[in-house]
Design brief:
By secondary structure, this protein is of the alpha/beta class. It has helices at about 10-15, 35-45, 50-55, 55-70, 85-90, 120-125, 125-140, 155-160, 170-180, 180-205, 220-225, 230-245, 265-270, 285-290, 310-325, 345-360; strands at about 75, 95, 100-105, 145-150, 210-215, 255-260, 275, 295-300, 330-335. The model has no long low-confidence stretch (mean pLDDT about 95). The structure holds coproporphyrinogen I.
Amino acid sequence: MPEFAPLKNDLILRAARGEKVERPPIWIMRQAGRYLPEYHEAKGKRDFFETCRDAEVASEITIQPIEHFNGLIDAAIIFSDILVIPQAMGFEIDMVEGKGPVFVSPLRYPADLKRVNFKPDILKSLDWAFKSITLTRVKLDGRVPLLGFVGAPWTLLVYMTEGQGSKMFRFVKEWIYSYPKESHQLLQAITEACIEFLAQQVVAGAQMLQVFESWASELGPREFNEFSLPYLREIAEKLPKRLVELGVKEKIPLTVFAKGAWYALDDLCDSGYDTVSLDWLYKPEDAVKVVGNRRITLQGNLDPGIIYGSDETISKKVEEMIAGFGGGKQNYIINFGHGTHPFMKPEKIEHFLKECHKFGSK
Ligand code: 1CP
């Protein structure tokens, strides 16, 4: 592993380990990207995935929110996307301006599986991601930890079959209800690719990891237990072993974010993750009760839409959230319940961050 500068701010790592902290650490899902004017400047006319693959530009974009909100954010998350695993498995994806990712040939029938690379060479096919992580660590110079991430297997199955974000989820439902055996084969292959990708991100310099199960909300409890949870568990179980094989000595905190799976919190707390990230469907006090005395750090969970409210409303909601998580001095990381939107004003986000510092330090 390359030698990097020592960390000047390790608040988020301490919070993820369950240590008492001076104030809860903060980062924001999609903190880099379209709401920041400097993102558009750095990206220019480049295609989205081309931007991710350019280590110089991707590292610059990763660090933008850290510099923009000077000292208010406690972690950087590498600028990339969850869809790079499908790319490694052989899918071609266009990023359509104003629409989002569109798969050129999504999977519609089991016969389409012959187009899928079930055992991608992650180190080779995603080499650009590792270069970008290493360069970002160097440029961060220990200011804050760098987070790596993957999309969870179920969420990636949604994109591979639907081909894009969806409202009805017709195709992925066809897969799980008509072709469950083949769905599981694919979920298993995605899981293995995810484990290797996470492990290699750590070797490249990632200091904490998050698994994004963004479409958990499309599954009911039984289906979540069949098509999502076993694979989330497998990631948490096998990743530490793979890290040991790769010579990583320290324990790397692992977060799971299963958006909409409120019913699964109890199970997620027993699934091998250090941190469980919550959307805004949970009342913090209730989530804390579900965790009980288990060694879990909760992350979340205000509706990012709060940023469209007045400064006073933002302050009030921040105060309530932190109080709901018991004051935030232990087992808590502040985040939104989902990502920022492109229309959000950076000044409003800055107000949110300052209020988190204010109420979190009390
Ligand atoms: O600051 C950061 O968080 C930067 C890195 C990042 C991450 C963690 C990006 C950049 N994307 C993601 C994860 C991601 N990508 C998720 C999981 C988190 C979530 O639920 O929001 C998902 C579902 C995606 C898929 C994706 N990529 C979408 C959603 C499509 C849909 O309708 O379902 C979109 C629009 C993208 C493109 C993308 N990824 C990232 C950015 C900044 C963008 C916008 C690209 C652009 O037009 O500039």
